[in-house]
Design brief:
Shape: globular
Structural class: alpha/beta
Order of helices and strands: EEEHEEEHHHEHEHEEHH
CATH architecture of the domain at 9-85 and 187-316: 3-Layer(aba) Sandwich
CATH class of the domain at 9-85 and 187-316: Alpha Beta
Number of helices: 8
Radius of gyration: 20 Å
Largest sheet: 6 strands, mixed
Helix content: 25-40%
Strand content: 15-25%
Length: about 325
Amino acid sequence: MARWWRADREAVVLEVRGLEKWYAPPGAPSACGCVPARQVLRDVDFRLSRDQTLAVVGPSGCGKTTLLYALCGLARPDAGQVLLDGEPVRGPGPGSGPGSGGEMAIILQDYGLLPWKTVLENVALGLKIRGVGRAERNAEAARILADMGLAGREADYPARLSGGEQQRVAIARAYALRPKLLLMDEPFSSLDAITRERLQETLLATWRTAGVPFLLVTHSVEEAAFLGRRILVMAGSPATIVARFDNPGCGAPGYRGAPEFYERVREVRAAMDAWWRGGPGPSEGEGEGGTATPGAPTGPNAAQDGPDGPGAPNGGRP
């Protein structure tokens, strides 16, 4: 089964082809050439359609944040392509033209709020940079804050907000830009369990109403299973995609308590554990709902021969 991967290509908003990234060792002269660079990402391939959400799960330090920076243009890939609506992402920028990283919005772990600006000013900041007039940007910021349950907090400063409220402000600022794609770097990792789960629900509710696809990187298997209709497991050094799962129950009412949710968590965790043990992963490949396809490639080289590798139709690429 590969319905998501073989969906109408016009519906694909993000496509990553053979992405690779190297970093020089800390303290090494940038132009010395005498110390070999360290490869962080290797042959990363995937697609995200407009009606999907995607969770990339992996251990801390495996390169998930580097992947996000490469997707939005903050870090230039050393090989491969990142395509947004079929156009190469050339770099970050405040604009919204083809190939501009400004067509994406990114939410970081530390929220990124400016402490000297009010909640309303923080949410409207991106619109101000784009040249939107004050009345229009403030009205849009106030509307989205109300959607996030923060009506009446527009004049507050970030220091007066709880961690969960600050994260909702960061989400509101991202959606104010009306991006084609939302990128998130472990946005709920510093929150307590109850607040984290509430914000996960808020994120899915906003996704259903706004229709903006999102890509989330996380080290939490449970978070990946709850938020990602598609789940990618990232591992190795250099890191690559080692397992892929469909997760059609994501977003359904009551999914967190459903047997399917716990089964998905078990399957993803089993794939991660198998990789770290150096053996074959039971859930790698293109199985229905995350189960393995008979004969699907497994083990450390599965990512090269899986649905996005040479064994897939057209090598997994258009």
